[in-house]
Amino acid sequence: MEPLIKVRDLHFRYEDGTLALDGVNFELSAGETVALFGPNGSGKTTFVLHLNGLLLGQGEVTVGGLRVEKNNLGLVRRKVGLVFQDADEQLFMPTVFEDVCFGPLNLGLSPPEAAAAARHALEQVGMGHALERAPYHLSAGEKRRVALAGVLAMQPEILVLDEPTTFLDPPGRRALLEVLRGLPQAKLIVTHDVWFARALARRAVFFERGRIVRDGPVDELLARFHWNLSESLDVVAPPGA
Questions:
Q1: Dihedral, CA atoms, 176, 178, 184, 189, nearest 10 degrees?
Q2: Which of 78, 206, 207, 236 has the smallest number of Cβ neighbours within 10 A?
Q3: pTM for the whole thing?
């Protein structure tokens, strides 16, 4: 079966000359969840921004059989839903319901269709009760779930979450974990949160200086890079440990 995401020899250099990606190769299969580890500045976020064309480097990136290039960006962005580290970057409408409707309406759905998609997505993340609330009145965990609902309402095949547990307290982390476990999409999780990664993903990759230097089972990778990870990851024991 063709991978949902296939990346071959991806390079990217920022305008200031910084080499951010230096020959990345990667594949993601349908239904798979993969954690992306690595120190700050190792290329993780730069990499995921290539998956829906927010950045375009040198190399080959395909999503669902489509090359990620200017002519295909509209179709690619329907397949890849990106949830940013700061939920406030995705929440800007007066109410939760309007925020989650925004994406489907921009895809061309009619107002009734967008409303139905928004309601369903909010129910999926446990926020169906908050339709008329103002996003800025929500807790950090609630904001994260509403931002996720805004992506789910567009029915992507792949979810990409950048540091999804940032600013979340333990109950918020556990609530988000349960939501993500119940979603069928393939997932890429950029994270420094070892507990969250181990609870959600079976496979992980480790970025270092713009390259993937290890790819394998989460626990095996954590053991191999123990000293690196102890410096760069926030190691938190699971609930009840």
A1: 40
A2: 236
A3: 0.87
